[in-house]
Amino acid sequence: xxxxxxxxxxxxxxxxxxxxxxxxxxxxxxxxxxxxxxxxxxxxxxxxxxxxxxxxxxxxxxxxxxxxxxxxxxxxxxxxxxxxxxxxxxxxxxxxxxxxxxxxxxxxxxxxxxxxxxxxxxxxxxxxxxxxxxxxxxxxxxxxxxxxxxxxxxxxxxxxxxxxxxxxxxxxxxxxxxxxxxxxxxxxxxxxx
Length: 193
Prior knowledge:
The protein is mostly helical. It is built from eight helices and no strands. It is globular, with a radius of gyration of 17 Å.
């Protein structure tokens, strides 16, 4: 059992990385990755929401199945995620106004971050237990954080580099994201579930 949890955790971070392998959560990945401090703040917020949303949606999925209405799963999951993000936004506004201001429009975008909804739906599809769901959510959050922080440090260094005019801005960011994604492909085969 412990070995399976380790495999799920490592797989979520490295192999099935939501940003670099599954291509979910690209909007905050590209939008918040210009500075490392905002990337760290967004990573913490997304990881927290991923874990909490996974726990709540796992429990709600049992209720939806028991009531015979599993077809409402996606709508209910979206409502739960939106509610959680509102709580995170209120907390950040009071606890860290500077981080709240730095995240700006990207904080409400967590509501529509497909990585969080995708994680909740994947947990249900994989028939994970509650413990496996929590471990997968923590791994997915840390994988998101790893990708976002790595990408933000690369983008900060690119600001100091001479980039050809046609590649400046979003173009070089997308090329770099593609190369980073290819680098993560090297982890394929590391963990077999």
